[in-house]
């Protein structure tokens, strides 16, 4: 609780402090959010909150190294995605896109038993906000995806954990860029009474980036499905919709 999250969402979030789309109850997870270092007057950028190094010696350096390597992997995946969308492989490497990205990491611990019929989840149904998410998980099952969110009732399927492999989720902004060719992954986590741990690495373009349909993803018969939007505008709204006021925790500490 000494590293409770700040207004930029960096730091520790207790159980039930985050809500997913259209949820009544908070998620049965706790997390530690590590953002990018920066100044207070830049959206999403502030000095990270770190635990006392005497308590966790070497931990900050390990997290910073992981952040650096995960970003490198995401940029390599982005080049493959660019080619799949019929643009140059380095298209997303532009300074206003991934040349100066927003890259965040969330360390997650899930607990308890989920009951979707009562709206109780480890993490409720949602899609990720940004371009893509690189997800490392332990061997405990829990992650489910829905391939078609428009079909009722929704069909959910478990995603197995493969040792040595990452799970890659498409995010909302890539769906907008690709005009729906790549669809943002609707997913949730169900708790089964076991402790479950994962590391989610979220990649977004620069906060000033205007996200709009790529020229190669539109035509006269297939016009843009989404209006152009500034990255920071979209992310700010989605973050505000997913957070619980933690002022009560701060008063108690």
From TrEMBL:
Query: What keywords would UniProt list here?
Result: Dioxygenase, Iron, Metal-binding, Oxidoreductase
Q: Does the keyword Mitochondrion apply?
A: no
Domain Fe2OG dioxygenase, chain residue ranges per copy: 101-205
InterPro entries documented for this protein: IPNS-like_FE2OG_OXY, Oxoglu/Fe-dep_dioxygenase_dom
* Molecular functions per Gene Ontology: dioxygenase activity; metal ion binding
Q: Which family does it belong to?
A: Belongs to the iron/ascorbate-dependent oxidoreductase family.
Name of the protein described by the UniProt record: Oxoglutarate/iron-dependent dioxygenase
Species of provenance: Arabidopsis suecica (Swedish thale-cress)
């Amino acid at each position: 609780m000494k590293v409770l999250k700040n207004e930029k969402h960096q730091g520790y979030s207790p159980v039930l402090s985050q809500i997913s789309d259209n949820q009544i109850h908070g998620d049965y997870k706790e997390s530690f959010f590590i953002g990018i270092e920066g100044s207070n007057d830049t959206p999403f950028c502030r000095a990270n909150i770190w635990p006392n190094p005497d308590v966790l010696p070497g931990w900050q350096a390990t997290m910073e190294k992981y952040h650096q390597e995960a970003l490198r992997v995401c940029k390599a995946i982005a080049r493959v995605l660019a080619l799949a969308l019929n643009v140059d492989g380095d298209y997303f490497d532009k300074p206003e896109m991934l040349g100066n990205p927003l890259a965040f990491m969330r360390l997650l611990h899930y607990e308890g038993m989920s009951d979707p019929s009562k709206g109780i989840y480890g993490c409720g149904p949602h899609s990720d906000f940004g371009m893509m998410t690189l997800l490392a998980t332990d061997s405990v099952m829990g992650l489910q995806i829905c391939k078609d969110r428009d079909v009722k009732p929704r069909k959910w399927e478990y995603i197995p954990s493969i040792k040595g492999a990452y799970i890659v989720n498409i995010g909302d902004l890539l769906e907008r860029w690709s005009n729906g060719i790549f669809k943002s992954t609707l997913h949730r986590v169900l708790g089964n009474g076991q402790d479950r741990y994962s590391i989610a690495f979220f990649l977004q373009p620069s906060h000033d980036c205007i996200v709009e349909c790529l020229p190669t993803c539109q035509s006269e018969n297939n016009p843009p499905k989404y209006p152009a939007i500034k990255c920071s505008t979209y992310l700010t709204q989605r973050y505000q919709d997913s957070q619980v006021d933690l002022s009560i925790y701060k008063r108690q500490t």
